[in-house]
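Subject: mismatched residue count in predicted assembly?

I count 286 residues in my input, but I want to confirm that the predicted structure covers every chain. Input:
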Amino acid sequence: MTLHGLIFYLLASVILASTGMAITRRNLVHAVLYLVFSFIGSALLFCLFGAPFLALLQVIIYAGAIMVVFLFIVMMVKPDLSEGTVLPLRQLLPMVLFGFMYAVVGVLVAVTDPAGRAVLETAVAKPTEFGHYVFARHYLAVEIISLILLIGLMGALHLGREKVPKEPEEPS
Amino acid sequence: MIVPFGHVIVLAGALFLLGITCAVCRRNLIMVVLGVEIMLNAASIIFLAGALRWFSMEGQVFVVMVLAIAATEVAIGLALIVYAYRRTGSVDPINFNCLNEQPTGSQLAGFIRE
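Triage response: the counts match. Full output below for your records.
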């Protein structure tokens, strides 16, 4: 096993373990912090897969911005103490059943697929080349992304504004 | 040389499974949105591995779009959660299945007050 392979398996185990810890925490702050750990692990994985620019974006946007938004919302919402078990059995049993089937089929597909046996080579897409590629071939997609972000901003503003209470109407 | 492509598929599939477990089983709206985030992350991992496997940069471009979609989805999803929390005082999704029945008791206290 090469050094790169070793790094991959280490990162994979760290990502899976921290995500598993995150989805079973009752305290939402702990869950978000474990998820930050998982996202930084996947940023390192991106770096291993030859996308250093996307690794930086992953750290800045996912682990930085999105998780901080989650932390703010966790602070705004009162902790729900009425929750029984963290993963209720009535919902977990079907999930385990179908998840097991899905895992078996997925592993079978991944093992038998001839494309899956090909070994990945190390390669790096430099940020300059990546930027040239994006803006030479996908400039329309970048514009669409900016429109989507604008729509998200407008939606969040509309949902988050305080409603002015109306005057109660006189019953006629 | 890193690893076989199949191992990356297994990693992304396991991560997706964890995310969907979180989205389906947790009784908390914030954890549901968090599960969707985990699923999007698994999708980006497999996109990048595919980009490396076939030496094409399309996969990396798509990861940028996944990032943008994730940011938008979180902004609107969390705004919706706060809006629902203001109206009902709860983040348990069981309190929001109120379209199919008459409002009963404390379940819809927020709606009645308005």
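The domain at 1-80+102-124 of chain A is CATH 1.20.120.1200 (Four Helix Bundle (Hemerythrin (Met), subunit A)). Marking this ticket as 'not a bug'.
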